[in-house]
Amino acid sequence: MNKRLSPMPRQAVPDLEIPLLTGGTWNIKTASCERFFLVVFYRGYHCPICKPYLQELNALSKDLEAHGVVSIAVSTDVKERAERSYSEWNLAPLKLGYGLSVDTGRNWGLFVSSSRGKTSTGVLEPDFFTEPGLFLVRADRTLYSSAIQTMPFMRPSFSDLVKALDFIIKKDYPARGEVQ
User: Fold this and answer.
1) Around Cβ 57, how many Cβ atoms within 10 Å?
2) In DSSP terms, which residues pair with 128 in a beta bridge?
3) DSSP 90
4) Largest CB tally within 10 Å, which of 65, 80, 91, 152?
5) pLDDT tens by residue, 127-155
6) Residue 11 to residues 6, 136, 138: CA-CA distances in angstroms?
7) How do 17-19 and 25-27 pair as beta strands?
8) How does pLDDT run across 85-129, given as a tens digit for each residue?
9) Rounded distance, CA 162 to CA 155, Å?
10) Fold of 17-165
11) Do residues 81 and 74 make contact, with C-beta atoms less than 8 angstroms apart?
12) Please, which residues have CB within 8 angstroms of residue 171's CB and are 6 or more apart in sequence?
């Protein structure tokens, strides 16, 4: 198995090219944004905590866009499971990517878990999937901020992020944690 890597602030993030449920692909190398990309890696359809989390992201998408942020949510789910998430969780018009490889997840610093059977919602976990991660990436594809979890709990709040963006933009606050 490959080692888990971790992108560093002020350095280029790894490649990410992912199919979208709405058709086509999303590629961080060719995508555009005014200020930031918000890349949200979620566990998948089996995760009962992912549903309200992505619903919050979707509800705040206009606020994020007003701050110059383009957001996308990505999982290792196969297309059929991602479609169920999208429709059952009412995630339109959120950009939802699927089919993330475990290796790509590791390149982004994500932790990987194996299936423990069915979750509390009765949905079988995939054999392997990535744990949550949130990455705020500057338009030049360098990492600004990240939050990487080892389990589904204790994720950053999107409403807190929207408030932080006001400060970040107003003060031109630099990325921190860049010292190796």
Assistant:
1) 21
2) 114
3) T
4) 91
5) 999 999 999 999 999 999 999 999 999 99
6) 11, 12, 10
7) antiparallel
8) 999 999 999 999 999 999 999 999 999 999 999 999 999 999 999
9) 15
10) Glutaredoxin (3.40.30)
11) no
12) none
